[in-house]
Write a sequence for this structure.
């Protein structure tokens, strides 16, 4: 009986450790609740209680890493220097603007006339917010005193090389910034364009990388194109891995496979775990979908609504951060 009891205790300890490791990630801070990729959104996510802040990287003309999902100024998000009217049409690429020039734009409110704004009726405006630098996010996390991680995405498109710096430069800037801030053990570098991840792995082998993927009718980053591999997968061809996306991500050297949430099936999750890959689907906003994915064994969830995910975790008996 004593041996059985010991096994039960050990099993409970393992289960508790696994549960405690569940990753509650605030997407672009907390996009559903505050303007995306702003310090206001990151403060909101920290106040709610997340384990990881997810955000996107861009590079200015003077080589500063800033936080923006869009390589070009997005008229749904960006107002002109006077803080009044939203810009008309796609704006200039961030890489063509200095940090000082970029700081003139207001990103504290969505254009209420846009279809984009209609997706986030709970988002609270924060007028006067500017594009933050990555250094400012590091400082905010330090000041919070919370042991949160950062999940940093290099926003780069192999089909639009003129919009950003090249993959090698992007990776070097990101790795240098993470290393200089002392966040190598608290950061993950993720990307759909795996070239940046492969470069980062060479520069900082201990830095975790996450392979982002999407497979939909209108957007697929893993399927080969004719006789060639997908331009997103750094030369790796899905066909060489039996059509298995988890095997492809594993071959790319990633510690995490981060699929579009609809592509995260129980079978694929199990296959990824068999390869020692963590599975972190994005962007999951419906509580029922969160619950289903937790039951399927994902290691975390990226969401615009970290408050909803906390509620689902509580209902599932998962320890909360």
């Amino acid at each position: 009986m004593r041996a059985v009891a010991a096994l039960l205790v050990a099993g409970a300890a393992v289960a508790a450790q696994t549960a405690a490791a569940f990753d509650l990630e605030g997407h672009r801070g907390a996009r559903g609740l505050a303007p995306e990729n702003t310090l206001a959104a990151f403060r909101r996510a920290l106040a709610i209680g997340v384990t990881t802040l997810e955000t996107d990287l861009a590079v200015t003309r003077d080589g500063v890493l800033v936080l923006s999902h869009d390589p070009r100024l997005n008229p749904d998000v960006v107002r002109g220097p006077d803080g009044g009217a939203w810009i008309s049409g796609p704006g200039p690429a961030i890489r063509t603007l200095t940090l000082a020039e970029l700081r003139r734009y207001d990103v504290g409110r969505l254009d209420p006339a846009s279809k984009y704004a209609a997706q986030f009726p709970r988002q609270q405006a924060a007028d006067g917010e500017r594009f933050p630098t990555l250094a400012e996010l590091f400082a905010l996390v330090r000041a919070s005193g919370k042991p949160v991680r950062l999940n940093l995405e290099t926003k780069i498109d192999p089909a639009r090389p003129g919009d950003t710096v090249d993959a090698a430069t992007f990776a070097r800037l990101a790795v240098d910034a993470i290393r200089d801030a002392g966040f190598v053990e608290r950061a993950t570098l993720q990307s759909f364009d795996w070239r940046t991840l492969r470069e980062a792995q060479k520069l900082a082998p201990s830095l975790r990388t996450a392979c982002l993927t999407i497979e939909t009718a209108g957007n697929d980053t893993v399927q080969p194109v004719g006789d060639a591999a997908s331009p997103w997968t750094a030369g790796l061809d899905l066909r060489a891995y039996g059509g298995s996306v988890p095997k492809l991500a594993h071959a790319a050297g990633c510690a995490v496979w981060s699929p579009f949430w609809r592509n995260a099936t129980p079978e694929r999750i199990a296959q990824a775990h068999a390869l020692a890959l963590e599975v972190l689907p994005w962007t999951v906003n419906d509580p029922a979908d969160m619950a289903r994915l937790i039951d399927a064994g994902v290691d975390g969830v990226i969401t615009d609504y970290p408050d909803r995910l906390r509620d689902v975790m509580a209902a599932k008996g998962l320890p909360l951060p």
In short: The CA atoms of residues 256 and 278 lie 5 Å apart. The chain has a mean pLDDT of 93.
